[in-house]
Amino acid sequence: MTMQTKIGEQLVSILTSSPYGRITGSKTVGGRDFIYIDFTPTSLCQHRAYDIRNTEPLIIVITDKDKPIIYSNRKDFPLTAHQNPSENEHRELCLFDFSYDELKHLLDGSFLLRQIDDWLCKTASDNIHGESHPIEPLFMPVESSVVFNNPPGCIFALRLCEIAGRKYYVQAKEPCSSDDFWILYLPFCLDIETDNIIRSLPTNIKELTEYFPCVDFEGKIMETVITCDLIPNMNKSAVNGMKILMPLLINKTLRNDKNRTESEFRCILTKSTIGQMREALGLNISTSKKRNMSGVEIELHNWIKGFDRTLGAIYNGIYEHPARQINILQFGVGAIGSQILGNCIKAGFGSWTLVDRDIFLPHNVARHYLDVGYFGFHKTLLLENLLRRTYADIDLESKISFPLDVLDEKNDDTIVELINKSDIILDTAASPAVSKLLSIDHSHNKRIISFFMNPTGTSAVALVEDKDRMYRLDTLEYEYFKRLLINPIHCNHFDREDRVYYSASCRDTSAVISQDLVAMFSALCSKKLKRVVETDHAEVLIWIASDDGVNTDGFRPSLYIREERKDDNGNTWTILISDEVKEDIKESRDKAGAVETGGVLIGGVDKFRNIIYIVTNIPAPDDSVHAPTSYIRGCKGLPQKIESIGNLTMGMLGYIGEWHSHPNAYTEKSTDDITLHKSMKDYMSNHCSPAVMIIAGNYGFSFYI
Q1: Is the pTM of this model over 0.85?
Q2: Cβ-based neighbour number of residue 495 at 10 Å
Q3: Fewest CB atoms less than 10 Å from the CB: which of 20, 496, 576, 638?
């Protein structure tokens, strides 16, 4: 027995001594091998849902350029799930969910026999589909699709795209070629019960009506054809050349399991034009033909719904995310900001309002979500256009983009109004000035989440306020600076970046940062955003790029306690001290016992807002002198430590004062303390900064500036 195909030869060889059965005949016709076998399923169940027999006569049709086709050679073979509609009298078993190209590396005689055996055994027990498998489509698969979303009206165009033999009819504003055409939009919604059986494709309206007798397709089409003459701004010739597109939303319920319901989206596109339908429906006055619905030819296509927010969420696996429609007010849509936004748009996450004053210039293309062709327009306007193109459900009356300078006082009222309308604030402006304005100057209760990269782009930082804003963004920034002192992985965090001039102005420079890093960090940031909006706590997180990926340094920040004091000039200062510093001072005092001790306060000063941040402290140097009624702070290694702190934090942290203890509850300044504080203030006056002194006693602290 000689076969022309490789798989055919393998089957002949295997079935000479195989438990799967025996060959009863074969032939080769037109390059295809036909092998007739009596197949013996290996593990049929005792009580069978379908009449699958111990020996099943099959016909296997094999070619070297496509998947094998398997037919039952029994006239009374049952109609079951997972069969392909057949053009002949034999039922066709559907063995494969993948294309030939995806299967051909696995396909051989042994694999084919195992697949046949698996299909017969699972079908016999009605287990061909698992519980998670979708209900079978009503009609056999097709290789063509109509792609459209909610159309702007009942008339639009379809543009034909053909790729590898597959046809796509895509929604368009108007026909652009001879293959494109105008259509009339006529949607239907159907509720049906199904036996999970795939049917042959209807080819005309008469056959479609026979499939769905409860739907008046004939009447609706008749009404549409009659009234299409009323279409404004379209001549009769154009109207007669139109076709009808009938999207079908089919809500399916399994007849034997009423709890299983699914929706199937298909499109019926008439092959007949309006002019041809007039003829078939007997509407032409010049002819006396009777109505012939079989003369209205149709094609069934897949319906690929246009992208929207819901589909984005489904495809990205966040459809069940409780906060996916949260109102996000974003400040700054530059490199990382635009890419975070782009990631969230694709995921259908968030309802966005964008604030940024900048316009899009050529150098932005290197790392921005937008591409060439948009130069000279405001970034926010371009991204609003992108949002509206992506989401058809955005209210046309809503305003999304605000090309404003957030630091300009004349825009304060607008900014406050936007903040009040938002659920959270996303700060991706990479500007300390903007961060301070949002967290300090504008009074509100909206949580702020900030993402930015370090100067060289080798790290990204997330500063996340808690839901109640007890941990404010400005204090989280100082917690981030403090972390740079603790973890040696950040030793190069503030290395100076390379810059490129994109014009002759000294301000017109752009940092040299790899798009690979921006893309990687924006992905981490957008993922983090989706997670943190579900939480209540504050968090600081630093991602560090490595040769192998990313290292993560995350922690819960310290809470800052608020104090207010006046300086010698009567100016009021706000002191924000980390509870960690207060605890360190208390522990150091307790450990010192009967003698006084002390240390150096490290922090930062906002001289515009009169805020002092006490972030950490340096313990008493080794050469300090401790006595029951005095403490003289030494200086061994201290200048080097303070200089190192300034270098690691790019000057954001430094010396701001001293603390020392009293052995009792008395925390007023002694004569020596007054002298010491004066010398501290004289020293700090050279830096135009206040000098902080803290005295720790039995029951608390006193602050002096």
Answers
A1: no
A2: 11
A3: 496
